[in-house]
Design a protein that fits this description.
With 262 residues, the chain is α/β, with parallel strands linked by helices. The protein has a single domain, classed as Vaccinia Virus protein VP39 (Rossmann fold). It contains 10 helices and 9 strands. Helix 5 links the parallel strand 2 and strand 3. This is Methyltransferase. It holds the Pfam family Methyltransf_25.
Length: 262
Amino acid sequence: METIAAISGYYVRGGEVDRLSVGRSRLEFLRTQDVLRRLLPARPARVLDVGGAGVHARWLAADGYRVRLVDPMPLHVQHAAAIGGVDAVLGEARRLDEPDSAYQATLLLGPLYHLPERRDRVTALREAARVTAPGGFVAAATISRYAGLYDTLVRDRYLEPDVRRITDATVMTGVHDPFDQDLFTLAYFHHPDEIVDEFTDAGLTGAARYALEGGAWLFADRDGWLEGDDRTVALLDALRSVEQEPSLFGITSHLLTVAVVK
């Protein structure tokens, strides 16, 4: 609960409800949706969305899935509960109040990067595996170890001494503990290789990784790449063609890691 308290000040502002619909974050949304739609079982399978503000729950429900959302932030639960077809409750990724094998897919599209301690991340993954039926899958999003470095460079904040100090520390340790909410909040930024070991320690073997934005997150909000026209289609096609190329895992802003529950 101490971690939840540390990040609540950031999320109580409500920005997460709309973040994925504007600017370059829209690419994160489109690519997460693209990968999941190719992996999800046939409708109306049951999907557990853990740590979501309702953005993904909305399209999942619209696609015909039976969606339950669990989030520690009352604001997020309130927002998601207003979405037709979504059941939303307060809860926490490390202690899911859900029965064993109840879902065909469990999504952790936020919790892992708010758990700085490895044991807590493995616990969350183990809980996700527990509530997922054999043959279903667990999918978890992580932020790249180097995302903060490129973000502060692109936004011209890296030359600020305190920003540079925090950014350099994150590159070394993965722990991101900023003084400024413009730089996000307390988080853990994964090296692209360590997430597979965390999945394995949680009993989730054979994990596959998908680079969601590749290097395109550094420019996708410029020059019309995300206007929903042919340029957007071409961009998504291009990123899909290299989404599992390991040499590109370090440049992407987010990785999606997926494993089937045995």
